[in-house]
Amino acid sequence: MTEKAYILRLTCDDQPGIVAAVTTALAADGANIIESNQFWDRQTNRFFLRIAFSAPAAVTRAAIERALQPVVDRFDIDLGVGDLSRPSKIIIMVSKFDHALQHLLYQIKVGWLNAEVVAIVSNHDASRQLAEGEGIPFHHWPLTRENKAQQEQRLLELVKETGAELVVLARYMQVLSNDLAEQLFGMVINIHHSFLPSFKGAKPYHQAYDRGVKLIGATAHYVTPDLDEGPIIEQETQRVSHSMTSEDFVATGRDIESRVLARAVKYHLEGRVMLNQQRTVVFSP
Fold first, then answer.
1. Is residue 229 over pLDDT 80?
2. Confidence of residue 285 (pLDDT cuts 50, 70, 90)
3. Do 75 and 142 have their domain in common?
4. Does residue 236 share a domain with residue 135?
5. For the residues 230-242, what does the mean pLDDT come to?
6. Long-range CB pairs of 122-131, under 8 A, 24+ apart, other chains included
7. Among this protein's residues, is 228 annotated catalytic?
8. CATH, residue 51
9. 127 & 101 share domain
């Protein structure tokens, strides 16, 4: 019998019986639980639950949501059910440096990321050949202070037109406006060189080199109106030493950025990231 894969995510105030009620409702629809993760935040008394499950092909997402509605009403739950059987549609934005973009495309090609890139957007033309070689629509939208609002409106229209569920800033070196960040909150992931908020601005690895740091890293986070201060999804560091050049720092940083961004995107696409005020709950595999 053909089955479909789903992901259920919920949050509500913690109280007895939530997991039992949810799993009972799923079982009644013939669902088989594949993975389950839960967390209780004692400070906020919020409960977070993620369940990956399969169900007979005849059981639709709408039917699952209907079956869970009494549980939602009983516990005042914020609930989402996602279909893991199809690739998620994403837009990747990039400027001149394409290492993170290329890593994402490779991980999609080999099946580690279950995603379809519906567009690549850039304020430079450098990645056009790469996009065209992959058969991905490329949008070259130069950005100036005068046309920023217009270009951001074009992005919103592209998101709607393509049905994109996630926008990935793969070293897109432009700051999104507060309005755009608010409209797409929870839908935009950025990769930031170094641990936040150190070494902002131009040539961060050269700044790190000049300061003689012993650790460099990268941070992937959701974009908010506060620059580079959105909820953190994933981070990584690597030791460096005085024997390395600034160019070594840059090369090491690019590798870290690519890996961290890809993991953050994977966690998001698999429904493993849940917002908890200004923090995240990440049910990593």
1. yes
2. confident
3. no
4. yes
5. 93
6. 122/93, 122/94, 122/95, 122/172, 123/95, 123/172, 123/173, 123/174, 124/95, 124/96, 126/96, 126/98, 127/94, 127/98, 127/101, 130/98, 130/101, 130/102, 130/105
7. yes
8. 3.30.70.260
9. yes
Please list the alpha-helical segments (H only) found in the chain.
18-28, 61-75, 99-109, 128-134, 148-162, 178-183, 204-211, 246-269
Q: Is the pLDDT reported for residue 276 higher than 80?
A: yes
Query: Among the three residues 83, 116, 146, which one is the final residue of a domain in this structure?
Result: 83
Residues 101 and 69 in one domain: no
Range of the domain at 193: 88-282
Number of structural domains found in the chain: 2
Choosing from 14, 29, 41, 228, the catalytic residue is 228
Cα–Cα distance for residue pair 124/203, rounded to 1 Å:
19
Classify residue 32 by its DSSP letter: E
Tell me the per-residue pLDDT of 81-125, one tens digit each, with 9 for 90 and over. 999 889 999 999 999 999 999 999 999 999 999 999 999 999 999
